[in-house]
Amino acid sequence: MLTKDHINEIEEDKEILPDATWRRMYLAEFDADAGGLRNIDACIAGDLLEAPIPGNHYVAGLDLGRQHDATVLHVFNAQDRTLVGHYRWDPGFAWTQQREETLVISQEWGLERIVVDATGMGGDMYQEAISELGLPVEPFNIDRSTREPLLTALQVALERETIHFPPVPSLLRELRNLQPRRLATGGWRLEAGPGYHDDEVFAMALGLTACVPAHSETIRGRRTGSRMSYLPRGDGETRSLGVRMMRENKSNKMRERMERAGVKG
Q1: pLDDT tens, 197-210?
Q2: Contact yes or no for 73/87 (Cβ under 8 A)
């Protein structure tokens, strides 16, 4: 009874949804053990690099710490979506010191994009302070409408093994302790467990948005045969806005179909 358009929608959702969510939505299968981030161990590979490799393109995700949180910067090889640089400032480090060290790190790696958490608590001020250094900063406000798609993209990357990272203890600890919490509305929300934080998780998720899309997506990239080649920034601001708009439209349509199907979280 499904039309060709219905089938296409279902197949498209399979590419952008975590497997457990897609199965719950379309196959009426519920896995009580499917919460949190899955397939983490399969994505562990390689080591952090001491310096950039000539010819590669590097981007970063920066999660700004608040009073009791760490500030975390993840540097990615944009082409193969691999974490190559890990920097962490625990609470107590002066913001001026973090700012100056971020400048040095950006220059060392030749960062082409830095996606920064600009959410409340002075996030805009910090983001502007970094922008004043001439760095390629792109603010990302993590709110109710963007938080779920951001973490969903990370979930899908882990399940599809399209992201890789070395066994950094603080990162693995936070990835493994992100768990679903039932909301009063009946939906679910991924959150850090009691006593844990999510700074590493969001630095990774933000950095992932700056990388070349995996699989069939070609925005900010160009197909050469069956391989993807990275396009330098150039008109990056326009491209970045286009990417966000397309992802938001796709996420909104996906959420509408989930609501019609009565699927939560």
Answers
A1: 899 999 999 999 99
A2: yes
Domains of the chain by residue range = 4-261
Instruction: Assess contact for 79 and 59: CB atoms under 8 A.
Output: no
pLDDT tens for each residue of 7-43? 777 777 666 565 665 455 556 554 544 457 889 999 9
> The pTM is what?
0.70
Centroid of chain to Cα 138: 13
Task: Compute how many other C-beta atoms are within 10 angstroms of the C-beta atom of residue 232.
Answer: 9
Helix (H, G, I), strand (E, B) or coil at 10: helix
**Can you tell me the distance from the alpha carbon of 199 to that of 204, in angstroms, rounded to the nearest whole number?**
9
pLDDT of residue 136: 93
Amino acid at 27: L
Looking at residue 27, what DSSP letter applies?
A: S
The residue type of 18 is P
The CA distance from 18 to 167, in Å, is: 23
Give the CATH number of domain 4-261; options: 3.20.20.140, 2.40.10.10, 3.30.420.240, 3.40.50.300: 3.30.420.240
**Cα–Cα nearest to 142, from 120, 119, 160, 125:** 119
Residue with tokens 């959420």: 255
CA distances from 170 to 164, 176, 199, 233 (A): 15, 10, 10, 31
The tokens of 141 are what? 């406000």
Distance CA 242, CA 170 (A): 34
Which of 147, 154, 149 shows the shortest CA–CA distance to 174? 154
CB 124 within 8 A of CB 216: no
Whether residue 38 contacts residue 159, with contact meaning beta carbons closer than 8 Å, is answered with yes
* 258 Cα distance to chain centroid: 22
